[in-house]
Amino acid sequence: MSYRLWAREDLRTGIWEVTPGEFKSTRPGYDEICQILSGSGTITEPDGSSFEIGPGTLFVTPAGWEGHWTIRETVRKMWVVKNVPADAEQ
């Protein structure tokens, strides 16, 4: 579930929530800044490295990013997204 709070041209922000489970995620054509408000989980990068997320975690997923999310406790995050030209992706 995602709620858009504000948008102007190629910049948007909102609140997103997901219940426990696992899924893959990509960032095609946009950079995203995320701050976890509540919940917990693990994000695993394609190279096998991973990091824990929980309240206060702040991270960036750049355009072209791919990862696997494992959500243990319902996660609520604030997000900011900026579109980028295809030639500027990773």
Q: Any overview of this molecule?
A:
The N and C termini lie far apart (27 Å). 9% of the residues are buried. The mean pLDDT is 91. With 90 residues, the protein is mainly β. The chain has a single domain (2-84), classed as Jelly Rolls (Sandwich), CATH 2.60.120.10. It contains no helices and 7 strands. The protein has strands at 2-8, 11-18, 21-26, 30-44, 50-53, 58-61, 66-83.
Q: Key terms for this structure?
A:
single chain, seven-stranded antiparallel beta sheet, UGlyAH_Cupin_dom, (S)-ureidoglycine aminohydrolase cupin domain-containing protein, 7 strands, mainly beta, Jelly Rolls, 90 residues, RmlC_Cupin_sf
Average residue-wise pLDDT:
91
The total strand number stands at: 7
Approximately how much helix is present in the residues? under 10%
User: What string gives the helices and strands in order?
Assistant: EEEEEEE
CATH homology superfamily name: Jelly Rolls
Number of domains: 1
Beta fraction of the residues?
over 45%
The shape is globular
> Which value, in Å, is the CA radius of gyration?
13 Å
Please mark out the parts with pLDDT under 50 across 5 or more consecutive residues, or reply none: none
Note the total helix count: 0
Task: Just give the CATH class.
Answer: Mainly Beta
Major β-sheet annotation: 7 strands, antiparallel
CATH third-level topology? Jelly Rolls
User: Could you give the distance between the termini?
Assistant: 27 Å
SS-based class: mainly beta
CATH architecture, please? Sandwich
